[in-house]
User: Fold this.
Amino acid sequence: MNEEMTFFYNRILDVTSFGSILTKPFCFYILVMKTPKYMRTVSYFIINELGWNFLGNLIYTLGHPIPMMPAACFRIDGLASNFLQTEFQRFLYFTALATTVLNCCLGFIPTFIYRYVTLAFLDAAARVHPFWGFLCCAVLQLITSFLVAILFFSVWLPTSEYRGELPQDTRNLFCYEEGPKLAIVMYFFYAAFGVFGLSVTVLGGLCVRELWVKKSAMSKTTLLLQKEIVKNLLIITGSALFFASLPFVVVVFFIYNSKLPFAWIIVSNALLFPLNFGTVYALLIFILFKSYRKTVVDIVRSVLQAFKRACAVCKTSQDTSSTVMPLYLVSRPHAFYTR
Assistant:
């Protein structure tokens, strides 16, 4: 691994983090404060997905875990490296990052479960308090986090016990045990990505089917609203599948097969897609949903009008200053002369 390439890659990650920090907090504000009533429950699921994505981006930005191929090790660069003094702390940091990745992917599934249940079993869903639905989602993601922690702990290996070739500089490193245990972790992530893709495909198809079957039982306004929500969720989830989940499959494969040619370059480039997906996700929310799009346009228009008023005030003050000075000099012409 070339240190110059690592430095350049770290700067790319800094640019990525700038886009994430710029868009996601604004998106959170729009979702929390400007969501219409008919989308209130759906917005909770979107906030959950965006929250996991933002947390993962933040952890990666602060830590910059760099794969040290061909060794099955990672180096923590960035600000977090100043605080993570032991290998176990660095291992926990990376485990937290992997947890956010998996929860971000699986977070799309409850969204479609809720959408399908409310379309297919509206009367039964109305009798269940939303709290129980949110509790089930929280329990699912806690179980996922627990499984990730157990699997990663089973393959964590102190650097002193690593038998492969290590780089000369072993600062800020932590390693994993190569072999069958690491293969289990790889297949676990493959299974999670597969469940994500299969679930959203099946549930999305079922939602479309329910809209088709029950279109005569809905009012025109309700049908249009439901179609808009389902269509937009399918577009957003499809983009997550192709621009975040599939690149992660490539990353996991080459991390496991770290001795393959160009493995480091492939992993580094593939990671840029999911790292930038959160920004794309926020932009898709603004563009696709009419209510959010209108709110963003109104905010931008208000900011531009405020900027124009500020410019007009500055210009007026400058014109006033240039007008007052000649009058002053006319009334006191001797001010220009000195003895």
